[in-house]
Amino acid sequence: MEILYGFIAIFLIGCLSLVGIFMISFREKTLDNILFILVAFATGTILATALFDLIPESLHHLEELGGVLSEYWVFGFILLGYVAFFIVERFIYWFHGHAHQKENEYVCYDTITEGLDRTEKGPKIRNFALLNLIGDGLHNFLDGVIIIVAFLTGIGNGIVITLAVLFHELPQEVGDFGILLYGGFSKRRALFFNFLSAMVALLGGLFALFLSGILETFNLFFLAFSGGGFLYLASTELMPEILKQKNFKKSVIQALIFIAGILLIIILVYVLPHE
User: Fold this and answer.
1) What is the mean pLDDT of residues 12-23?
2) What gap in Å lies between CA 55 and CA 115, rounded to an integer?
């Protein structure tokens, strides 16, 4: 049953890729306000999930193995996850970032409005849009693995991880939709290929299900690996977006939203049953 819940969670998160249908009707100011909240909340949930769920759960699995591996292996896996996510960010999402650059200034989601000015056929597809799809597909594959591994270790753990992934994916899917529009995709094709990329997560889930059945240490490895990856996402990808805010009042609001995200995960970890 846990496995079924896991794949349902993956599919529902994949459906977030269709968020562009609703976002294109929002005014730019409204969209900015939504993303303002989501990014701060996602930072809190991702950071807390790594520190209060993924890493402790990996240490719990280490105890269950009865001394087969030392704690150094767990922290090595955490570091490996951190480095692996860094490599994905630098060498694949490098193109993702350049899709947002305009006159040497980093613009988060302005590409959506620029892309909507194009005709429905769209111009020639730019390379960075295709590379973004590949990078996003890899990212979604890892998300699928993380979610299934989480549900295999308990429904409570699966729910916590799913929420953390959900709050991270929502603002990212808005950005990815904008990149595809800016890169020459029509609105329909952008929605279709963004959804297709999101569904790669199902393959990640199947991959995790297969390996967890034949490798006793796979769940331990990937929980720790994911913990390191989540630490990277929170500290280097999401937190810098919050720190860009210079307005004092908005900074205070973001800090409170960030703390709310942390508290939500802590409460869920202690309330939901974990094996």
Assistant:
1) 78
2) 40
The radius of gyration of the chain from alpha carbons, rounded to an integer in Å, stands at: 19
Torsion angles phi and psi, residue 100, rounded to 5:
-100, -5
CA–CA dist 29, 35 (Å, integer): 10
Total residues found in the chain within this entry: 275
Widest Cα–Cα separation across the chain? 62
From residue 16, how far is each of 79, 94, 166 by CA, in Å? 29, 23, 8
3-class secondary structure for the chain? CHHHHHHHHHHHHHHHHHHHHHHCCCCHHHHHHHHHHHHHHHHHHHHHHHHHHHHHHHHHHHHHCCCCCCHHHHHHHHHHHHHHHHHHHHHCHHHHHHCCEECCEECCCCHHHHHHCCCCCCCCCCHHHHHHHHHHHHHHHHHHHHHHHHHHCCHHHHHHHHHHHHHHHHHHHHHHHHHHHHCCCCHHHHHHHHHHHHCHHHHHHHHHHHHHHHCCCHHHHHHHHHHHHHHHHHHHHHHHHHHCCCCHHHHHHHHHHHHHHHHHHHHHHHHCCCC
Cα 52 from Cα 57, distance rounded (Å): 8
Separation of alpha carbons 16 and 177, rounded Å: 11
pLDDT digits (tens, 9 = 90+) for 115-171: 444 444 445 666 667 767 777 787 889 889 999 998 988 888 899 999 998 888 877
Q: Is the dihedral of CA 17, 18, 22, 26 positive or negative?
A: positive
